[in-house]
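Build the 3D complex.
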Amino acid sequence: MSPSTPESGDDGLTPRRWLADLAAREQRLLHLAILAGLVAGGATIVQMGLLAWIVSALLVQNVSPGGLVWAFVAAMGAIGVRALAQWGQEVVAQEASLRIRRVARHELLEHLEALGPVRLAGRHSAGLGGQLVEQIEALDGYFARFLPQLRLAVALPLVILAVVAWLDWLVAILLLLSMPLIPLFMALVGMGAERLNQEQFAAVTRLAGHFLDRVRGITTLQLFNCTTSASEEVFARADDYRRRSMRTLRLAFLSSAVLEFFASVAIAVLAVYIGFGLLGYIDFGPSSELTLFSGLTILLLAPEFFQPLRSLSQHYHDRAAALGAADGLVALLNEPLSEDASEGERCGVAPATAVDLRGVSISHPGRGRVLGPIDLEVAAGSTVALVGPSGAGKSSLLQLIAGFIDPHTGRMGIAHENGFAWMDQRPLLIHGTIADNLRLAAPHANDAQLLAALGRAGLGELLARLPEGLDTSLGERGVGLSGGQAQRLALARVFLSPARLVLLDEPTASLDEISEALVIEGLRALAEEGRTLVIATHHPALMTLASQVVRLDQGRIVAEESA
Amino acid sequence: MTPGDRRGGSAWRELGNELCPWLRQLGQRRRRLVLGALLLASTVGAAIGLLALSGWFITATALTGTLLAAGAVARLDVYVPGGGIRFFALTRTVSRYVERLYNHDTVLRLLADLRAVMFRVLAGLDAQALSRRRASEWLNRLTADIDTLDSLYLRLLAPPAVALLAILVVVVLLASFTPLVGGIIGLVLMALWGWLVVGQAWLGMSPSQRRVATLDRLRGHVIEHLQGLGELRAYGSLSMHRRRIFDEEDALYRDQRQLGRITALGNALAGLGVSLVMLLVLWLAALAYRAEALSGPLMVMMPLAVLALNEAFAVLPAAFTQLGATRAAARRLNALKGSSSAIVETATASSIHEGAVELRLEAASLHYPDSLSPALDEISLTLGRGERVALLGASGAGKSSVAMLLTRLQDPSRGRVTLNGVDLRELSLEALRSRIACLTQSTELFHDSIAVNLRLARPEASDAELWRVLEAVELADWAERLPRQLETPVGEGGRQLSGGQARRLGLARVLLRESPVVILDEPFSGLDRPLAERIAARLDAWLAGKTVLFLVHQLGNGQVAPPGIRRSLKLVQGRIAS
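Done.
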C-alpha cells in the first residue's frame, strides 16, 4: 500500500522496484528453487561424464558391458537425482509465485478501495477486474520461472565451463568468448520486446473493455440493427491485436533464435574441432591430448552449457509480460489517494448536527467545478430534500457527504455513527441469493428482519410468490428482477442498516404508486426513528416529507426552505 | 495402456465430441496447420540429427585417430559428416524461428475468426438467453475461452504428432541397425508418450477444468466489488465482500498448486524416461557391439539420438495437464452455439412496405423458465396506424416484455405478434428493427463519445443533426460547454453522465432514428418536471403520424404525461386489467 499524500503525489514506485519488493517477500523459497536447479545441473554433468566414460571404456579400453554395471547404476542414480531436483525446483518456485501473487492482489484491492467509488467511476470496471485477475496472474511466470532461471543461467554455465576447461582449455575459451555475446544480443532484443509487450498489454485491456461494453449493450445493438457492424468491429479489434502480437513475437522469438543459433553452431564447431583433433589434424593447443572420453564429454556438455540461457530466453516473455502487467498495476498503485489540488479539510461536528458544510466545492479533472462553493447544515434527525434540475449537482453533493469525493475547498464535518446508508440509481446486486444481497447491509440480520425489510420496501408480495423465498438466486445486476424491483431491494438494505445517516439518490425514480407509497411510508418511519435523511429527488411527495428543502442549480444552492 | 483408457472409453469419446466442432473450425486453415507441423518436425529432426551425427563423428575420428597413432593405414571421410553437422545446425535454428512465428500467426488468425463468430452467435440470442448470463462471464467466453482453444493446435495437436514422428524416426534409425533394439525401444517410448499425453491429461482433468470457471467467478466478484464500492463502503460490508473474493482466490490457488505438481511430475518423468531409455539403448548397443553386430560409432550414435528426443517430449506434460481447461472452454462455447433460444430468421423472410404500421399482439404469452417476473399471459393488444397507446403498470408487471415481443428481442412462447397482419417471424429482422425506434427501460450507453453513441441510431447522421436532437432533449448547451463537445467520452455505461443526462442522451438517440413505430419505456424517468414538460412538447411534434407505444408506471399523480395518448391499458402481473 502506498500511503500517498497530496504533497508526495507520485511516490515514484516503478514496476521494477515493485516486482523486486514482491520477490524479496519470498526470498527463501526462491533461493531454495535455485539450489534445486543447481543440484539438477550438477547431476546432469555427472550423467554426461559417466556416459562418455562408459563409451570410452567400451570402445577404447575394450571393457565388456558386464564390467560396467556399476557405471550404469551410477548414471541411473544421477538421472534420478536430476529428475527429483527438477521436480523440486518447479514445485518450490510455484509456491513462491502463488504467495507473491496473493499479496499483490490484496495490496491492489486495498488501494482501489481507498480510491473510492467516484474516482473509479471513470474507469472500466471490467478493465480493472482484468487487471486484478488476469494481470496479477500474468506475474506468475516471472516469479515461478524467470527469476530462478536468471540465477541459474549465470551459475550453471560457469560450472560447466570449469569442467570443460579441465578437459580442454581451448574449448573453454571458445565457449567463454560466446558468453558475453549472448546477453548482449538478448538485451538488445529484449528491450524492444518489452516496450512492445507493454503496448500489447494496453491493447488487451482495451480489448477486454470493448468486448464487455459491446456485450452489455447487445440489446441496444440488436434494436439499432448494429450487430453486424459490431461483430465486424470485434473482428477488426481482434485482428489489430494479432498484428500487435506479431510485432512483439517477431522480436521476442529473435532472442531465442540467437541462442538456438549459438547452441547449434557451438555443437557443430566443437564436433568438428574435436573430430579433427582426434584425427591429429590440429597441431596446436591442447587438442593432441583429446581422448574419446574428453571429446564426448565436451560434446555432451556443450548443449547443457547453453541450455540454462535457452530456458531463460524462453521465460524472457514472462519477464516482459510481468513488467507490462506491473506497469499498469503500479500506475494504479501510484494514483494518489486524494486529488492533488484538494485543499478542503474535514472537521468534527457539533452534537446535534449530522452534516456541516462551509464553503465547500468539488472539482472534477477536465470538467472544472461541478459544485459549490456551498454552505449547508443538516440537523441530526432531520430530513433534507435536495431538489433542482438534473445535472445541478445533487448527486455530487450526496457523494461529497458520503465521503466518496474530497472537497476541493472549504471545511466539512459529517457525523458517521454506525456508518451511513447509501442508495443510488444503479444499485449493487451481487451474484447470490436475495438474502446474500440483503446481508451486505446487515451481516447478522435474521430471516425475520430480512423479510420485514423487504416488506417495508414493497417487495413482500413478490417474495411471497417465490418458492425459494429468501434463498432465490439473483444473477449479476439483478437478473430476474425488474429495474424497480432491483431498486427496492437496494432500499430494503437501507431499512436493514443501522446507520443514522441515510443518503438516497432518487429513491422513488421507478416505483409504481403502491410501492412508492410504501417506500415513502418507510422513509417516514426511518425519519421518525430519528435517522437523518438526505434525499436527492424530483418527487413532490418526498419533498413534503422533508423538513428542509435545498434547491440546487448549476452547482449552487439557490434556495433553502424549512417546512 | 494407461489408467485413462481403462477407466472407460466413453469419457474420452465425450471429450472428442466436445472438441470436434473446434477441430473442424481449425480444419478450415488445414494448409497452414500442416505446414506449421512440418516446420516443427524439421526442427526436432534437425536436433536429433545434429547430436547423433556429432556423436558418430567424434567416435569415428577417435577410433581412426587411435589406428593412425598405432601406425595403421586408416581413412575417414571427414567432409560429408562435417557438412551434415553444419546443415543440421543451421536447419535447426532457421526452422525453429520460422516455425514459431508462422504458427503463432496462424493461431492468432484463428482467434480473430473465432471471436467474430462467437460475437455473432451472441448477437443472435434472444433477450432471455442474454439476460440469464452474467456480463463478465460473457467477456470470458469471448476472450479467454477462445484464447484457450488455441492450445488445441499449438499445444495439443502439433506437439504430440511431432513427438510421435520423432519416435518413429529414432526407432527406424535404431531398427535399421539392430531390429530388436528398435522394437524394444519403440514400445518403451510409446508407453512414455502415452503417459505424457493421456496420463497427464487424466491427472489434470478436473482441476484444469475448474480453473476457468473459478477465474470467472473471481473476476465477477472483483467487478461487483468495484462497481458496488459505494454501497459496500456505506454499509461497512467491504471486508465481508472481500472475503468472497479471497475464498475464490484460495480455490483458484488450490487447483493451481495441484496442477503445478502434476506438471512438475510430468516434466520430471519425461526427463527421467528419456534418459533411462538412453541408458537402455546404450546397454543394448554395447551388447551388440561386443557381438560385433554394430560398429563403435553407431553404438554411440544410438543413445545420442534417443537423448535428442528430450526436445520433442519436454512440451507435452504442461500442455496435456491443462487439457481440461481447453475442454471446459469448448464445452461452454458449444452450449452457447447450440442455444435453443436464438432468434431465427426464416429463409423466406419478407420485407416491409413503406408507410404507417399497425402492430398487434394476438393472445401472446411469454414464459421465462427461471425468471422471478410474471410471464405475459395471453395478451391481446392492437396499435393502430398512427395511434398513441399507453401501457401502464407497476415495475415487473411485464411492460418491458411487451416491448421485447414487439421488437422481436424475444419470441412469444404462445400466440403471435403481427405487423400489418404478418407474423414477425415471417419478416426480415433487419427490416423489422429498422421500422421501430425503442427507448429501453435502462439506457445502454457505450464507452465511446457522445457522437458515436448517437450515431448507432443513424450512422450517416451529420453533426448538425446530432446537435438538433441534443437540442430537443436540452443537452446541447451542456455539450457545447464541454471541451471536446460531441467527442466527449461518456464513460463505461454512461457513468460520466448523471442519470438524467444519460436518460436524455438515450432519448436523443431514439429521436435520431426515423421510423414509423416508436416505443418509449418511461421516457421521462429521472427528469424534473419542467424539463420533462418541455421535452414532452417537442416529442409531440416529432411523434406526429407515428404508431407509438408508451410504457409508464401511471398517468397523473404529478407525473408528466407523455403527449397525445389516445388510449391507455393497464398491465397487472402479465395480464391486461379490465
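Residues 1-6 of chain B have pLDDT under 50 and may be disordered.
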